[in-house]
Structures are given as C-alpha cells and as structure tokens.
Amino acid sequence: MSKQGSDGGIRRAVSAYFRAAGSLQGKTVVDVPAGTGYTSRLLAGLGARVEALDLFPGEFSAPGVTCRKADLQKPLPLPDACADYVVCQEGLEHLPDQLLPVREFARLLKPGGRLLITTPSVSNVRARLARLLLESELIGRLPAAPSRAVRVTEGGDFYFGHVFLVGIQQLRILADVAGLRVSRVLPAGISPGSIAPGILLYPA
Predict the structure, then answer these.
(1) What are phi and psi of 178, to 5 degrees?
(2) What angle do CA 49, 110, 86 make, to 5 degrees?
(3) Looking at the chain, which runs of residues are DSSP E strands?
(4) 170: burial class by Cβ within 10 Å (0-12, 13-18, 19+)?
(5) Helix (H) or strand (E) holding 147
(6) Rg (Cα) of the chain, in Å, rounded?
(7) For the segment 82-113, what is each residue's pLDDT rounded down to a tens digit?
(8) Which of 24, 109, 137, 172 is 20 to 30 A from 192, comparing alpha carbons?
(9) Predicted local confidence at residue 195, as pLDDT
C-alpha cells in the first residue's frame, strides 16, 4: 500500500513498483479506477493483459486497452481469481463503503496475487494540523459547498470527491477483514507542506 498526496509522486511510485517486478508478460492486471489510462498504458507496455475499469470510461485512453464501466460500490464485472495484480490508485477515498471494493479486490486475486493501493496520506504533520484546525486533512482539496463534493453520472451513479479519507490503520483493518495480508507500506514521496510544521513541532 502506498500513501501520498501528489499525483506525480504516485505515478512515479507505481511505475517504479511495476518496473521492479520485471516483465509482466502473461500476467493479468486489473486497473481500477483506471482514470485517463496512464497506468494501463504502462502495464500494457510491460507486457501485461490489462483489465481497465472506471466509472467514467469515456475519459480513458490507452492504445490496445479497452476500459469498461464499473462502479466500485458494486460487484466488479470480472470472475473470481482472474488477476495476478489489482491496482487501485486514488480510489478508496471517494467511497462511502470501502470494505466492499477491498473484498472485491481480494476476490479477483489469484492465490499469491498482489494488491497495490494508493490513497492521499492523512498521516503526515500537515494533514494532522489541518484536521485539528479546519476539519479537513487535505487543505484545499475538499470543496467548500457539500453539493460540489458529489458528481452524478447519467446512469445515476454517485462520484464523491475526497470525502472519505482513509488512514493506514483503517487500511490495515480493511485488508484483514477481506483476508489480505499487508506486506509493505510505502511513502511515495515527502510532502513539502509537512516539512516546516514538522521542524516547528519536532521539539514537542
């Protein structure tokens, strides 16, 4: 599991993870939510058979990969034990029910398969101060008006903003309940916004 607040840092961390894994030839990787297709392109380039899923498949573009519509608040349209890897980047923090998708990820994985989750970090000093002072772990990331935190698709599915932020302890519990074992927790980078508060609070 990887936690970080910068999209660029997340992409670099995920790219490094899979490049270190070597060739993905013959491996099936589920990319959900697949977003614009950045990671799907990377995975396909490493030889993987990519199953891309997203609530907004029209925003996806990756040569040779088709993205199917899927809602992480519902069962995913894939069979049991079909994936060597499942990648969920910046998805759980948008979901009111976070256990359902984690259970679905576990269902999709083959024995010995791996799940990679990234989510904005709420464990750093900056996030903790923001929570104390503003009731928001991500300064500037939550919309001012509740109505702007929700997007409704043409089919009536709800997409929430960064409303349901999740910490590492919660992720550990979700993984345990779903029958998964956490092997590593990786920071994807250092948040510049946490350096100054960290220095100021270090004596305390």
Answers:
(1) -80, -5
(2) 55
(3) 2-3, 28-31, 49-54, 67-69, 83-89, 109-119, 150-152, 158-160, 186-187
(4) middle
(5) none
(6) 17
(7) 999 999 999 999 999 999 999 999 999 999 99
(8) 172
(9) 57
